[in-house]
């Protein structure tokens, strides 16, 4: 005969954070089941929240009325919109304010994500905010002399601390803090999640060399994750990236380090919360391998040489400017030959004129 627990016995504690995701892994929802539909609904709601927040923030930031206030916060010594202006690969002037707007959409979508444990929401907000803050610091105070890991490490060996080194260290620290917020307790898991968040943020920044490339890559990774165990975090990434993708493709704005690092960090936080340890190790290895390859190979050259990647990369972008007509130049006139002159010999004192 089964012994029933007394009525006053406390209920079993509800799993939180990573524990809730582990339970979702142990009990996968069947496709089309109410649980699977509920997850998709939560991811769609999070995507809508992130998209609405990102669009609203972008409209406020680019309005002339708000321009002075934004510059007072980020660049108090120079009241000029040029601090957020950059020149893209085509030579057109674009604004970097897409980055802060995207970061706000990521944080809002993750913070209000339905059907997502509180710890995971806090971890995603921490990761995205850290990537945005340190990325904006590199945008506004960065030196153009040091590029890539090799450049920053070389400057560090010479005793010079670059803004890129500060950014990588800061995003790594906020990644470890986000892992601790999510419920990780083992030091190995904390370091693994922190490295995954920082590496994904850096890789997303490396992809942000052409309009829409980083946002398309984030959408390609986040869309399948909407059916995973943490759809709210993936939905925030997909919604915020899709909302500002038209501005990026039209070359009116660009992500910059602020937006690209925030997007990659949020994507890394979603992967750290959704994947088991072997998959996280594999993801970190793949991201680190691509980052190392970028030191020796140009991503743009590889994409242009691959037809499928080239079509996807150019999808929605402005067509390349046609080469202008070459002006016909008149032929250079030939120089008129001059008659040869006989060399004049200086006449010596007392000498006679030579006979002709």
UniProtKB/TrEMBL annotation:
**UniProt region (Disordered), positions on chain:** 314-356
Keywords for the protein's UniProt record, in alphabetical order: Transferase
Gene Ontology molecular function: any one: transferase activity
Output this protein's name: UDP-N-acetylmuramyl pentapeptide phosphotransferase/UDP-N-acetylglucosamine-1-phosphate transferase
Native source species = Streptomonospora nanhaiensis
Print the organism lineage.
Bacteria, Bacillati, Actinomycetota, Actinomycetes, Streptosporangiales
